[in-house]
Design brief:
By secondary structure, the protein is of the alpha/beta class. Among the domains are: 167 residues, Alpha-Beta Complex (Spore Coat Polysaccharide Biosynthesis Protein SpsA, Chain A); 37 residues. It is 42% helix and 14% strand. Strands 3-6-5-7 form a four-stranded mixed beta sheet. It has a two-stranded parallel ribbon with strand order 1-2. It has a two-stranded antiparallel ribbon with strand order 4-8.
């Protein structure tokens, strides 16, 4: 979603990797739709446009893509990742377990995972109760690892390359980097809570989509899975407490007691930030953060002194 600049860098490199039969690209309601003419002239590329989504919910997008897969294996990559110098058959020869799964082993590409399609389907894919992004990749690995006979291997850092970028870009959130980091923290912990409270898939089913005559796809109304009301409300309270506490450096009790008009809950994963919040950010928050900034400088200075003393 809105990652065209990264996609155009990664796609030619994925095309250069010979060990795949198809490459599914999902345009999750980007503001500017991706055109097939924007992409390399490779017949293995299948561009799927889903319209009508206002926020980036990766679990939904990944499951939608996986449902279109024709082969026996799925290699999930973000728009900012590609594979190089990797022969999957050699990896499997070294580790021939029937339930073999491989995941990337470095920070920016940790969500990259190579898994058999039937094994992916057996656990219901990604947890679609999770909103926004954060923890959906770890949750998938944990549930795969819990399956009998499954072994989780690692892909070497040099095999999965990623484009470094800010939290703003990762969260598809223009504006403040601090806001993006606070949102990431809030949604990650909320998604952990949802994973613990509502085991996936259980009685839940993935969302359904229909293809329109024009070629794009739409979510079938009423098919998006939702947790029980009380759990959904608790997850929203958790997101609110963590987001505003992290973004404005407020104690948890302050956020809990503050009225909604001052510190509102999120709307489908996004928090409305008003001018009063930015005024607080540039005044009171900076004063509150000053001791933390001084401690950070002193800690870095101490590390530098110890390194030079050791040298």
């Amino acid at each position: 979603m809105n990652r065209r600049h990264h996609l155009l860098q990664s796609l030619p490199r994925v095309c250069a990797w010979p060990h795949h039969q198809e490459h599914i690209v999902v345009d999750w309601s980007s503001r500017t739709p991706i055109a097939r003419s924007d992409l390399p002239d490779d017949p293995r590329i299948r561009l799927l446009r889903l319209q009508g989504e206002t926020q980036w919910h990766p679990s939904q997008a990944y499951n939608f893509a996986a449902a279109q897969v024709r082969g026996d294996w799925i290699f999930r990559l973000d728009a900012d990742c590609w594979v190089q110098d990797l022969d999957p058959s050699q990896l499997m020869a070294c580790d021939p377990a029937d339930g073999w799964v491989a995941r990337a082993s470095q920070g920016g590409s940790l969500g990259a995972v190579l898994v058999r399609r039937d094994l992916f389907a057996a656990i219901g894919g990604f947890n679609e109760l999770m909103r926004s992004y954060g923890f959906e990749d770890k949750d998938l690995i944990y549930r795969l690892e819990a399956q009998p006979g499954v072994h989780i291997g690692s892909l070497a850092p040099e095999h999965v390359v990623f484009i470094p970028h800010s939290a703003q870009v990762r969260a598809n959130l223009p504006g403040s980097e601090a806001k993006a980091r606070a949102l990431k923290r809030a949604t990650s912990l909320s998604n952990r809570f949802l994973a613990a409270s509502c085991p996936w898939p259980g009685h839940y089913r993935c969302a359904s989509y229909r293809q329109e005559p024009e070629g794009h796809w739409l979510l079938e109304p009423g098919t998006l899975p939702c947790p029980p009301r009380e759990i959904a409300e608790e997850a929203q309270r958790l997101r609110r407490t963590i987001f505003w506490g992290r973004f404005l450096l407020l104690p948890e009790l302050y956020v809990i007691q503050a009225p909604q008009v001052l510190l509102p809950s999120d709307r489908d994963g996004q928090f409305p930030i008003h001018s009063t919040h930015y005024l607080y950010w540039h005044t009171v928050r900076r004063l509150v953060a000053l001791p933390l900034s001084i401690l950070t400088v002193l800690r870095r200075l101490g590390v530098w002194v110890r390194c030079h003393s050791a040298g």
